[in-house]
Predict the structure.
Amino acid sequence: MATGVNSAGGRTMAARRAPPGGTAPEFSSETPDCQTRTNSLKYVLSKKQKTRLSARGHWSTWPAFASRQTVLRSHKPCCTPEERQSSNKEALLTIPKPQYLEQLESYLRKELQSLDLTKKNSQELKLQPYREIFEFFIDNFKTYKPLLSAIKNEYEVTLAHQKKTIRTLEPLKAMVTTVSEECTRQILALQEKEKDEINMLKQEKQHLLKFIDNMKEEKNSLQTQVEHLRTSVAEEYARYLNEHGACKLLLAKLNDMHNERLDVTRHPVQDVKGEDVVKLTLALKIARQDLTKTQVKLNAMIADYGDDVSRRDFESLEKKYSDLLEETKTLQKDFDQLHTEYETLLEIHRETAEERDNFRAELQRVQHNCTPRPNWAKCSEVIAGGADRWGCLAEGKTSDQLVDVLLEEIGTGALKEINGFPGWGKGDKVPVYLRYEGEVKNKKLTKRDVVNILKDVWKEKIALEQQTGKRSSLPEFFLSYLQKKYGDAAAMEWSYTLYENMRLCRSNHVLSSFYDVLTGKVGEEQYHGQNQLISNLQKELAACDSSNSGSLTSKQFSTAVGEAFPLKRKESVQELVDASRYKLDSTEDLIDYISLFKEDEEGNAGPFVAKLRNQYVREKQEYLRQLKNKLGALIEVSADDLKTAFCTIDPDIDDQTLDTYLGLAYQVRREQPDQEVVPVETALQRLLAGDVRRVGPSPGEGSTAGFEGE
């Protein structure tokens, strides 16, 4: 037989015959001609304890449908021998298990109970007892030994191959983490470098804008000077033309006068005789009149058009006026809008002031009517454990939560004084795990014992569902678990005791969550969904811890939380970071993320896990609030309307998730397309009880109004 290797402890196990003189438990065979064989198997546990198991026998024909043990029906403690003999005859009708099978099962249970399943390699340790049992089967049943040995060898080879593959991929995982950090570092460096360049370019831009403004001002100044010089040149040019024309006229007159003098000198007699004095006098008079008219007309022209401007100046002023008019209209429009907003703000302010006054009056009335805040420190005098235990219980809790804690302490104290519980009866409305008539004994368990039992129930249920691939009902599994572990007679005693402890201890998450699922207040998917979120966050934090030191900086922790929950807002991520630093000093930057998920002996988690669960509930309520707002004033909703609403508020939702949500809302399978309409409030309550989460980012900010289902 091949040697089985345990990779966790590095120990080997080989099946071989027991040495002569060795002791081992013997099992009697059912037929005289069966051969006797003795097998011994040595398995070194974590506590270095050695056990042996060997048996004699042959392949049993014990039927699979027979009960596990012989049950004597209608047996009375104080009955006559005749009645007892008749009951024994009835018991012989049942077929008991073979003794060898009973010994193997007992051996398996003892081995499993002796294992420490809290270690990292707990699954491999748990597999070792099953290997031993399989070795017994191979060695005892010679006919099937080759086939069973081949099967075991193939499984061992496959397991070794898978472990080798895992060890090969571990360095690759570390390398990927290192490369990711290096890329992140390079990206941050490039961003810092680009940030400096951007700031430098912005400063250069501001400098150039100022330089352009100065150039524009200088250009305007030069244009003004040019215009002034053009005007001066035009005036000088006109004056020069006037003087030039006047000079020409004077020269012409001087030449005429000079010529006249010459003519008078040469022909004085003829000139006197040739000119008519009267005619010259009349011409002079007419010339003087024309001069007077011209002077009057010139004065009138100067008076009428002295203040006129040129067309160029007129067009320039007209353009400036148009620009100013357009700017004035824009400013008037902005002023009107600001005035409207101002009026609206005044109205809001008035309403807010009225609401503030109402709240103030309500506060004064409440303060007048309410009782003074109680002195909770007095509770430490009556609580078991004194002030230290009360300080741990009351840390970070409100008055309402302290009342719950006080009621829980009183209830659990009173529960320990009760010796029994009255049965609820066997009606159909009574849960299956409480169907009993008569008095039920109180097992008087501690809260730690209850937490351990409930955790074991969850563990066994999850293992069974993974093995069978089917989801089972928690109430029925709870009852079957108790019957299997404690027997049918004591199952109801444990069930009633556990139920009363869960009903009273609402501050403990393990007890309250199990009670809510057990009573149908919430769906089991919500419990598994919260655990999956916590598991994903643990994996993401471990992936960011490349040095495996168990600690991360605040920045690394915030980045890991953002990667694990990409849909969370920055405020929610900051809340988780603050909750993770509740025991750290303000100067410390390293966060021990492993300790954030640890629980005390009663199953209570720290503030970080509590904040994570509160955010889960709050985000689901906000998601359903958006769904309710999208449905509007509908009283009843059909499947198509609900599907449309989901796709509107969550565009990235896939068909499988959508079918799951519709199945929760209508309590039927989605393969039935024609479903009846249900009230909106009923659908929202069913969705609130299940594991409903947003798949993609929200297209807009959700409403912050109250949700009736909270």
